[in-house]
Amino acid sequence: MIFISGCRPILLNSQINNNSKLVLVLPSAPPTFNYPISRSPYGIFKFIYEGLLSENGLTGELQPALAESWVLSEDKRRIIFTLRSGLKWSDGEPLTADDVVFTYQDIYLNKKIPTIYRDFLRIGSNGAFPSVKKLDQQRVEFILPEPFAPFIRYVEKLKILPAHVLQDTVFSIDADGKPLFLSTWNTNTDPQKIISNGAFKLAGYIPSQRIILQKIPFIGVLMPWVIHCLISMKLLSKLFLQPIINCLDFVLEN
Fold first, then answer.
1. Can you tell me the mean pLDDT for 186-205?
2. How does pLDDT run across 71-80, given as a tens digit for each residue?
3. pLDDT tens per residue across span 47-90
4. What are the backbone angles phi and psi of residue 61, rounded to the nearest 5°?
5. Alpha-carbon torsion 9, 10, 15, 19, what sign?
6. Rounded CA Rg of the chain
């Protein structure tokens, strides 16, 4: 099975076989494997990370991802998300409410980390931010400064990151006084050190050639027939001159 990676899937061939390898094509090499600071429209993050919610690709409706449920208060200013039980990171460590609070409070809402995703959390005409707190190991509560219907949709866009791996990098600084987080998980990082919570983990990277993803057996049900995912970086103009285009199952475009 072969994909061209971008943002929106278009089905070309409906037949899915039992091949264990999924092949995708990226038009350019990833600038980083650090999701919050990446500005590239292309990447592997959709395969290696989940957020609290996900969007159904057919209906556009929100559905559970890391969170199994969510409840909105009567005043529409408080949202409680309940995580699925037994969640784990790719290294086997438990994924809990601590990771959610860390991701939002210490990364997305951290002024020292230049992430485009902070703007997703601005609410209302004043651009105020929500607060987030842990209720217990499986529940987190977001408190909004005012009712804001789009917030729940923005939550779907924001991936959750591992506190047990990244917390020290956020609060440690380099020689220039910047958080070590900004240089963490770059393209020179050992793939085994990049921890994920999605259906795949990063297994290998050859710069400007290929990315190899490996299915995580105890995480998710996405593409259960796939064991490995091979992402090739080729010029699309060259790709479409090859007969390989006849084998495409999906094209992902902006």
1. 94
2. 999 999 999 9
3. 899 999 999 989 999 999 999 999 999 999 999 999 999 999 99
4. -80, 150
5. negative
6. 19
- Which DSSP string do the residues of 101-148 spell out, in sequence order? HIIIIIIIT-TTS--GGGGGG-BTTTTB--EEEEEETTEEEEE-SS--
Which residue, among 25, 34, 43, has the nearest Cα to 189 in the 3D structure?
A: 34
The distance in angstroms from the start CA to the end CA of the chain is 20
Residue 173 and residue 165: Cα distance in Å, rounded?
16
Length of the chain: 254
Whether this prediction's pTM lies above 0.90 is answered by no
CA dist 229 and 224 (Å) reads 12
* Ordered structural domains, the chain, with CATH: 2-253 (3.40.190.10)
**8 A C-beta contact, residue 10 and residue 216:** no
Instruction: For residue 26, give Cα distances in angstroms to 6, 16, 41, 43, 187.
Output: 8, 21, 10, 8, 15
Q: How many CB atoms lie within 10 A of CB 191?
A: 17
Which amino acid, one-letter code, is at 92?
G
Evaluated on CA atoms 154, 159, 165, 171, the torsion sign reads: negative
Confidence band (pLDDT; 50, 70, 90) for 225?
A: very low
pLDDT digit string (tens) for 137-186?
999 999 999 999 999 999 999 999 999 999 999 999 999 999 999 999 99
54 touches 37 (CB < 8 A): no
